[in-house]
Amino acid sequence: MNFTLETKRLLLRPIELSDAAAMFLMDKNPSVHNYLWQTPSKNIDETLATIAYIHKQYQDNKIGRFATILKETNEFIGWTGIKFINDHEENGATNFYDFGYRLNEKFWNKGYATEASIAWLAYGFNQMKIEKMHAYTHSENGASNRILQKIGMQFMEDYFDKNGVLWKWWLMENPN
Q1: What b/e sequence results for 59-95 when a residue is b if at least 16 CB atoms lie within 10 Å of its CB, and e otherwise?
Q2: Residue 6 pLDDT exceeds 80
Q3: In terms of C-beta density within 10 A (0-12 exposed, 13-18 middle, 19 or more buried), how is residue 128 classed?
Q4: Which of 99, 109, 153, 164 is the one with CA 20 to 30 A from 91?
């Protein structure tokens, strides 16, 4: 990947191997995984495998999750971005664009996810010409559900995953 996005406070750039330590610190925190799949990372090798997977997405799909860097301190605060889902089904769908984010807990409730989300949706709709952007969140993750609603995504339906966990399915159509 060869581009970056900037917001007032954030730099959004491809994830690099040098991000592994900060990414592992984020992903080993059980609180970060509370509304995910309850699988915090156990070692740095898992993070390195995730980074390799993300790099393959960059190569195959020309998009993927990006490192989200706080400009003021140059800190890795998490990842945000667009991912093309073609390796599994979600709510009966595959081959769709998904918007998502994951931030280190110490950066929650500061507006960073909202700020990055607005930039990514603009990029996806204006540069990539994506027609429909999806997102899915754990039904009990009030903060993420509020962010998606705030940025203009439309709640479509609740659905159960293969483990019986209730999720929310969101959609935004290209306004252009």
Answers
A1: eeeebbbbbbbbeeeeebbbbbbbbbbeeeeebeeee
A2: yes
A3: middle
A4: 109
CA distance 90 to 128: 22
More confident call, 162 vs 97 = 97
Match 């799949």 to its residue by tokens. 37
Given CA atoms 132, 136, 140, 141 in this order, what sign does their dihedral have?
Answer: negative
In the chain, the N- to C-terminal Cα span, in Å, equals 25
CB contact at 8 A, 116 and 12? yes
Contacts of 62 (CB under 8 A, 6+ apart): 1
The reply to whether the predicted model has a pTM over 0.70 is yes
Q: How many CA atoms lie within 13 A of 164 on its CB side?
A: 0
Those residues whose C-beta lies under 8 Å from the C-beta of residue 162, and which sit 6 or more positions away, are none
**Two tokens at 10?**
């954030």
H helices of 63-111, in order, are none
